[in-house]
Amino acid sequence: MTRKALSQALPLIPSSVMIGVFFLIPFVLILLASVATLTPEGDMAYGFDLSHFERFLSWFYIQRALFSAGMCALIAVLSLLIAFPFTYMLTTFSDRAKKIWLIYILAQLSLSEVLIAFSWQILLSRTAGLGNILEWVGIAEKSFAMAPSAGAVIAALVYLAVPFAVLLLYPALSRMDRSLIEAARTLGTSPLRSFFTIVIPVNRSAIVSSSVTIFVLTLGAIIVPQVLGSPEHWTLSVLITDQAIFNFNLPFASALAVVLLILSASVIGLVMRFSGGEK
Amino acid sequence: MSGLEISNVSKHYGAVTAVNDVNLRFNKGEMICFLGPSGCGKTTLLRMIAGLEEPTSGTIHFEGRDLTHVPVHKRNIGMVFQSFALFPHLSVGENIAYSMKIRGHSRAEREDRVRELLDMIHLPGIEDRRISQLSGGQRQRVAIARALALNPEIFLLDEPMSALDANLREAMQIELRKLQQELGITTVVVTHDQTEAMTMADNIVVMGKAKVLQSGKPLDIYKSPVDKFVAGFIGTSNLLPATFSGNGAVGFGATDVKYSAANGSFANGEQVLLMTRPEEIFVHKASETRPENAIEGTVTFVRDIGATIEILVDCNGYEVISVLTPKDDPDVHVGTKVFVEMPPAACSVLAA
């Protein structure tokens, strides 16, 4: 290796080591574990055993995988529906107002998933939640529990995802040339229509990449589905935790993790391919 | 028939006054240039005509119709933005046809009009290209075509040449002017380039510090600017401090200089400015007979570029520039003592 090539490679070593030690090696271990055999003593022996993947191929697990993907896609869409118009409005605020909002949103991110899950549990409970307000206002005859339910899981995950979506969309939206909207207006477009014909398409790549990020992020959520959902609302991530921690079946948990990884990788790939086609 | 009427229009942003009590009248079909340094309020005034800003007070009429509070998208205007503001997600053809699509014109109609407009801007056959594939000059033409797609009543351009390089700029000025005359469309151009304004405009509005300083035909403004700011902004001018002495003359040092026009009335002994244009004054060697209406000075710089000769003369510590044709070449060098002849017709008096 020449001196020049060496000096170029040198700065990359620390980061390569970091990625290797903390990401690549664990990933290889998971791959190995997913094809390992579970011994009767509950230990695992490395080998090449595809039985865990075969076990996944039952309707129960496929259904769980599809449910997870579907629910997270829905959450991504809902989050974007809330975050995009809000972020667009945020970029028109004064600098001071912008700063305050962004600080508030960043602070929101520091709340842990656990805290959010249990807060929503109270909020949706029969005795101390929204149901009581509905009863008081007279919309509902009697207070009722809104959790556990799919709606509760989705609501809490959207709540969790919206600040991320805002922060992901903000750079693109604040960089957008405002005169594009003005130009559309001078060409006879109403404000609402210019939002749909200009603002959204111009920011399409930012919308796509934040949706994918939200999708992947919520796919990995464990606590919210467990706390606010009944077992039929559990995502693949919850099942992985269940297998790894409570059933001591590391090989099967690893196999499920590999499936989850393939699932999210193929969604990212598909979306990138689909949205990159017109660029 | 009255065209564009701007009456008592002001625009305030908090304590800042962007446009201060502007009154202007233009005929239909004229090309108007708002000329001034940055921050003089010219763009704000243009945006108020477009409807992108609402005047704090005053009214804007076009052909007797009050436009003041009509929203942008209901005014029949076409606007070219400084950045051109072409839609990056649409092709050239889709950009040009955008307004027609919004108004519900059929696909065939749109395609015909796009072809027609691309021919007009001398870029036929590029309707399927992406905006990112176009050069700066092409983008400007496409922006013009897009703005004109629906035959607007008023055509507005905000610093349209600022993104182009110098050569292209000159060609586009002429082309834009030709196009405007062909279409007979009332056009307002904002610029800080006086040559651009002189090239294109029927009427120039010189603005400074949120106010209209002078408006009129380009040559009228050039020949009799109302004050030193306008004189300095439109063309090059020589401004010499002088004392008003009545009898159609001002005193510069010990010399009396006759003038033909005075902008304002002045008292005897008042300090004024004597203004001349470089191409209207002459330089003679001091060894020759002293011409009438001449002041003395020393040559400090000569620039002979063939077609014209520029001579800088130091007169009592003030610099005077004279631009001569080769036939009037006085054959002087740096250090030559000279007379600077200022024919009375070339001299006008401005407030100091």
From TrEMBL, chain B:
GO molecular function: ATP binding; ATP hydrolysis activity; transmembrane transporter activity
Keyword rRNA-binding recorded: no
The entry's keywords: ATP-binding, Nucleotide-binding, Transport
InterPro entries, per the entry: AAA+_ATPase (IPR003593), ABC_SmlMolc_Importer (IPR050093), ABC_transporter-like_ATP-bd (IPR003439), ABC_transporter-like_CS (IPR017871), Mo/tungstate-bd_C_term_dom (IPR008995), P-loop_NTPase (IPR027417), Transp-assoc_OB_typ2 (IPR013611)
SMART domains the UniProt entry points to: AAA (SM00382)
Protein's GO biological process: quaternary ammonium group transport
Keyword Transport on entry: yes
Domain ABC transporter: from-to ranges: 4-234
GO cellular component terms attached to this protein's record: ATP-binding cassette (ABC) transporter complex
PANTHER family hit by this protein: SPERMIDINE/PUTRESCINE IMPORT ATP-BINDING PROTEIN POTA, SPERMIDINE_PUTRESCINE IMPORT ATP-BINDING PROTEIN POTA
Protein name: ABC transporter ATP-binding protein
Organism for this UniProt entry: Ruegeria marisrubri
